[in-house]
Design a protein that fits this description.
This protein is of the alpha/beta class. The chain has twelve helices and 20 strands. Bound molecules: dihydropyrimidine-2,4(1H,3H)-dione and zinc ion (2 copies).
């Protein structure tokens, strides 16, 4: 008699965003077809007795192989980036297809498909980055691409080659409203940053730690308020991404109290790093933690932890932006130590996002296991039109499962599978790591070996958001 399932994961302690329960998980054709006790045998069997099983991570914000002016180049492409994600328990990612100014969105999308095809080992969608919202882009291309499953786009209020002015932001948000898409906003005030940067450089203050001085909380607070005001004016929900501290959190709470539908994302760097990690003196190693917005102080970290626990944050993403340190294309190119405005912004975090939050969030008692699932998997899937195929353990969902191993280990960069030459979390004690990651029922990581073939990852045509704040 043939087996009823391709795979049965037995005796799992399953956690979803709403419930924790014991069951077997029956998988056929990569999909969960049954949850029950004492399921019939499967072609293959995994015993998860004593282990927590969660849906795999959905990382709603990461950058892979993104086009950047040379000599800077991202260390991770879709091969190493998706491998790293899988080994850290994430099997769905939404990186970016970034439009260059003057380029059509269609050409950007085609280019990023080329970069992903044959290389991605886990499933992926694309957010668009809109840098040039010309009338044809807003009125023709955006609606077409939304209909084809690119249902979200990021806009920037800073970075010269990316930023939009206020009027352009309104045009893009209005298009999002008309077609039901989601706008992600990078909220930092560009002119304030430019002015502060100039005065720091004039004073000869060039070390990595001045990156944080040039982007104080105020510049994020102001831009967050402005983005929220535009969302109110246009009457459309937006996501404020990579929220770093109290003053931005206050703006989000203020907006919600006014009935404005604002979603909020934070990232591990605002929980686990602080401004001191950019160097307490002029040590250049601080460049490893240069990202924008910058990590803040311990008081702000506490506010971010509270926001994770109390529902302020909708999602926790990595904002993986992989630049090696000692690398001609990285942060210390050919041994040179550029002044802070020229250090590539971003840190790696695809692989460490889930284990760090499981350890310091769930096991340290700061958030529940169900909230962990909500923040890392279910809510990003809902926000970006992937639920219930992704982001949950339910009949009909893809069998994307993490079987957790709650053994203690010390994190070192050589344990990781990215192509970056460092992790900002080197030496941290972790109390959990994926003992096994399954993507559509296939074991892609068994706790020791990564085994997925390049190119098995599928492009996800996403639906519209299915979540309300
Ligand atoms: N800031 C961004 O806006 N994107 C990538 C990384 C970073 O630090
Ligand atoms: Zn950003
Ligand atoms: Zn980013």
């Amino acid at each position: 008699m043939s087996a009823s399932f391709d795979l049965v994961v037995r005796n799992a302690r399953i956690a979803t965003a709403s419930d924790t329960f014991h069951a077997d998980i029956g998988v056929k054709g990569g999909v969960i077809t049954q949850l029950g006790i004492g399921l019939p045998r499967g072609e293959s069997e995994i015993d998860a007795r004593g282990r927590v099983v969660t849906p795999c991570g959905v990382d709603g914000h990461c950058h892979l192989d993104q086009v950047i002016p040379p000599p800077v180049r991202m260390a991770d492409d879709f091969l190493s980036g998706t491998r790293s994600a899988a080994c850290g328990g994430t099997t769905t990612i939404i990186p970016f297809a970034a439009q260059q100014k003057g380029e059509s969105l269609r050409s950007a999308v085609n280019e990023y498909h080329r970069r992903a095809e044959g290389r991605a080992s886990i499933d992926y969608g694309f957010h668009l980055i809109v840098t040039d919202p010309a009338p044809d882009v807003v009125n023709r291309e955006l609606p077409q691409l939304i209909a084809e499953g690119y249902t979200s786009f990021k806009i920037y209020m800073t970075y010269d080659d990316l930023r939009l002015n206020d009027r352009q932001m309104l045009e893009v948000m209005a298009a999002a409203r008309k077609h039901g898409a989601m706008t992600l906003v990078h909220a930092e005030n560009a002119d304030c940053i430019e002015w502060l940067t100039e005065s720091l450089l004039n004073a000869g203050l060039t070390a990595p730690r001045y990156h944080a001085t040039s982007r104080p909380m105020l510049v994020e607070r102001e831009a967050t308020h402005r983005a929220i005001s535009f969302a109110e004016l246009v009457d459309v929900p937006i996501v404020i991404v990579h929220v770093s501290g109290r003053e931005a959190v206050e703006q989000i709470q203020w907006a919600r109290n006014r009935g404005i539908n604002i979603f909020a994302e934070t990232c591990p760097q605002y929980l686990f790093l602080c401004a001191e990690d950019l160097g307490i003196d002029d040590d250049y190693h601080g460049a490893k933690c240069v990202c924008s917005p910058p990590p803040r102080d311990p008081a702000n970290q506490k506010v971010i932890w509270r926001g994770l626990a109390d529902g302020t944050f909708t999602i926790l993403s990595s904002d993986h932006a992989p630049f090696s340190f000692d690398d001609p294309h990285g942060k210390q190119p050919n041994g040179e130590q550029p002044a802070f405005p020229y250090i590539p912004n971003g840190i790696p975090g695809l692989e460490t996002r889930m284990p760090l939050l499981y350890t310091e969030g769930v096991l340290a008692g700061r958030i529940s296991l169900n909230r962990f699932v909500e923040l890392t998997s279910t809510n990003p899937a809902k926000l970006y039109g992937l639920h219930p195929k992704k982001g949950t353990i339910a009949i009909g969902a893809d069998a994307d499962l993490v079987i957790w191993d709650e053994a203690e280990r010390v994190l070192t960069n050589d344990m990781l599978h990215h192509a970056v030459d460092y992790t900002p979390y080197e030496g941290r004690r972790l109390r959990a790591w994926p003992g096994m990651t399954l993507s559509r029922g296939e074991v892609v990581w068994d706790g020791a070996t990564f085994s997925a073939t390049a190119g098995r990852g599928q492009f996800l045509r996403r639906g519209l958001p299915s979540i309300r704040q």
